[in-house]
Amino acid sequence: MAIVYVAYDGKWENNAYVDHKLKVLMVSMDKTCLQLQMQIAKSIDIEEEASKIRMLYNANLETSKGVEIENDSDVEMYLYLVKNEEEYKKCPIIVEIEETTIQYSEGSKDSVVALYVEEEQILTTTLVQKTKKRRFQEVEETETSSSSSSVWESLKREKENMEIITKGTSIEDLKENLIFESKEDLKEVLSMIAIKKKFQYRVPKSDKKRFMARCIDEKCEWYLSVRVYKNTTMYKVCTYKNVHTCSLEFSNPDHRQASSHLISKYIQNMLGDPKVEYKTNQVISDVKRVLGVTVNYQKAWRAMQNARDEVLGLASDSYGLLPSYCHMLKKNNPGFVTKIMKDSQNRFKFLFVAYGVSIEGWKHCRPVIVVDGTFLKAKHGGILFVACAKYGNNGIFPLAFGVGESENNEAWEWFFTSLKEAIGGREELCIVSDRHLSIANAIKKVYPEAHHGICMHHLKENLIKRYMVAGLHDLFFKAARAYRHSEFEKYMSEMSSLNPKIKDYLLEIGPGRWARCLYPRRRYNIQTSNIAESINSAVKEAREQPILKLLDELRKTFQNWFLERSKLAASTFYPVTTWAHKEMRDKLEKANCMEVEQLQTNTFNVKYNQKTFFVDLEKRTCTCRQFDLDEIPCSHAIAGIDKLYRNKYEYCSKWYDIMMYKNTYNGSLNPVGDKEDWNIPEDIKQEILLPPIYKPAAGRRKKQRYKSATETFKMSTKCGRCRRTGHNRKTCKFSPALHPYSKKHNTNEASTSCKAQSSPTAF
């Protein structure tokens, strides 16, 4: 763009233009002479049809008024001088305006009709006499009749016959004098007509000024000729011979005009919802059903990728908009924290995002953070890092998330450092994850004061993979979930009896990292990293989209969670959360069957199933240790509380209080709005962020994680004859069509042979 000054409505004195008015315009560097005249005429409010514009600029020539701008080359030279030469920065275009009149002369053959285009309208000028200095570029000479009225009638007929086909317009067939905005629009419409009318065409000629098409059958008379319309970027149908005499041998289901680009236009509406998975085989069947065209798998896959890029945007462009998107999130959401890290080549490396409402809500959650990472399925790959917690109603609370290249020491250390800067530290903090070595290294370095616990599910998978022993699965879970140390030792001994190396393996890892009874701090009921994996599952479809769409889908998901749970908290009338109330209610029936012996004001001996438990309500402890570790009254404590006729809710931890629950979701996540309405500072807008270098692996892109060999799957056998489950065709007893080796066949065969031997022979 160039800043151009326009001087007009002045007078000349000694080759100097004085007493003039001044306008300032922003002019693009690719303006033509005609377009510049139109922009100037519009800015100074003159009628272009009734005026002649002469443009000059002063080149410090004392002997003349200046250099006249007559064509596109003159415009290009002037804009170059204004843009690059300091002395021409404020050199204005001097505009001289002359009124023109329409002259009608009989038999005149020098009259011309000048047509030009401004944006999407076609403007028709008046008839003017051809002179050496034309006002507009001559585009077509028209021989007029001897009378002026016949000229205007022909011009009116031409305007009435013009029909402009815009992008996305669907028509039944072509006709002469149709005007298309671009060659791409013409080819798209022509291809659709060819598919619907079951013929195929070839293109013998196509350049910047014309487009020709013929039927693929050389004997067929069908023909189309299109040319550029009068020095514009539009194309006009000049000749269209819509007669088909082609042979049926050229008609086949694999249509040459059914390109992947054309098919993508029809399937774009199927890709709007990320939760609806639209597969390549569905594209093939839909194209066959709607268009009657057979396409192969590769073309259908390319069409889906083109449609995805059109609907979701290019994955590479998404990274460039990331700084602007984060700025709008920060602007619309108070307390929002985001960090973007680039390498030396301005390529994306890491991203960290934490919402202000999540940072505030974390203060009202139990001090246990669960972290996990999952792979992204988009073009540039990457890893999605997730940190979450559990609020008082035992639900998932999203804390922060990030995106990195891979799960390595640098990535996890950067994520935990950003997390600590955003949320700070907490007393009695625990961090739960799988046994990934990079996570353990990062926690030791960034959170040395926190206790690192291991997900017992991942440990169980490793254990079973190492020691394939029957019954090990149940014994390990019983040991991990045991509240009392005596129970833990019991199950450890049983596992040792299966294989002595099992106990050594678990002790080497450290029971304090996975066994509930040996935790140095409270982990409450959070013994796995399932809540982080649940977030990964909630955005499973969004992980296939570009990073900007991924962030927006995460925001939408968390926004819906905050709205739903704030409503649920507002509708709860218990002093504690619904989950805590249900936990105590389930224990109440068992508590009513216990014998309670009061020792002092707040201490009791509670007997149940020939076992005695000591309860101290003042210290909130019980020898079963459920009261100690979960901070919810166990059944023994409830029996003691009922003995004193006290309120059970008062003995729950503050994390289960209803006000803590409400304060957790006392906020909302606001969207960024439409991209056209973004107000981005210039420094952020100019920031360069390139996509990471990613070399895709050979073969189909991975969409599901690799499952371990120890993961079990529930499989049921289904009969191919009667369609019932629990048996196969060979053992089926319900189908009338019998397998020769089935039990029913053998039984019937034996009974039939007995009957045949006992019955007389019939002739």
Quick structural overview:
The chain is an alpha+beta fold and about 775 residues long.
Textual characterization of the structure:
- The N and C termini lie far apart (108 Å).
- The protein is α+β, with helices and mostly antiparallel strands.
- It is built from 24 helices and 28 strands.
- The model is unreliable at 100-152, 708-715 and 741-763 (pLDDT under 50).
- Helix 5 packs across helix 7.
- Strands 18-19-22-21-20-23-24 form a 7-stranded mixed beta sheet, with helices on both faces. A 6-stranded mixed beta sheet has the order 12-13-17-16-15-14, covered by helices on one side. A 5-stranded mixed beta sheet has the order 4-1-7-5-6, covered by helices on one side.
- The radius of gyration is 40 Å and the shape is elongated.
Measure the end-to-end span. Answer: 108 Å
Principal-axes geometry comes out as: elongated
Structural class: alpha+beta
Count of distinct strands: 28
> For the report, how would you describe the main beta sheet?
7 strands, mixed
Mean pLDDT: 79
Number of continuous helical runs: 24
Unreliably modeled segments = 100-152, 708-715, 741-763
| Proportion of strand residues | 15-25%
Keywords:
alpha+beta; disordered C terminus; single chain; elongated
